[in-house]
Backbone:
């Protein structure tokens, strides 16, 4: 087993998790500010799970004697509608699930079966997150069929949306 190779992939995963944590906290604060309470709670809840993922990856890096790289790889994106936020989160989770599956395969090649198991578990959890977000997109799509747009400032419309679509 090549430890450096494992540590590189584990640190790439730490970077991905950090990106998700920052992005979801941004979405959480945005939704909270405009009164999208249920969406705000969803982003907060999933951000906390991503923190746990980061901790698992960091533990593995430490065990392998590596240095944990906590630099944020990219700037966070700013979305102006709830639908755009949820769509972006769905894409992030789908991509993340694919990356973890690829990394799990790379760990088989590297004979690092502990990291392989960790990546496989994280892939499953990211796919679950993707499903959670996707189900929200569908609700938002349903709404947009009858209401032209969902702007955060449209407080009354949002309240109707939350009541009817259980966001
Ligand atoms: Fe994650
Ligand atoms: Fe996730």
Residues:
């Amino acid at each position: 087993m090549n430890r450096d190779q494992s540590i590189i992939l584990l640190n790439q995963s730490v970077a991905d998790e950090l990106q998700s944590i920052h992005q979801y906290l941004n979405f959480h604060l945005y939704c909270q500010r405009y009164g999208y309470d249920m969406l705000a709670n969803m982003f907060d809840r999933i951000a906390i799970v991503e923190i746990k993922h980061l901790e698992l990856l960091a533990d593995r890096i430490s065990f392998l004697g590596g240095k944990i790289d906590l630099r944020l790889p990219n700037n966070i994106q700013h979305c102006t509608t709830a639908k755009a936020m949820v769509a972006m989160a769905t894409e992030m989770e789908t991509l993340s699930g694919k990356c973890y599956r690829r990394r799990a395969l790379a760990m088989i090649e590297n004979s690092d079966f502990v990291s392989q198991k960790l990546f496989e578990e994280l892939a499953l959890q990211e796919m679950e997150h993707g499903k959670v977000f996707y189900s929200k997109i569908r609700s938002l799509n349903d709404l947009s069929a009858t209401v032209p747009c969902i702007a955060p400032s449209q407080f009354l419309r949002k309240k109707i949306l939350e009541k009817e679509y259980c966001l």
In short: The longest helix spans residues 113-146. Residues 145-150 have pLDDT under 50 and may be disordered.
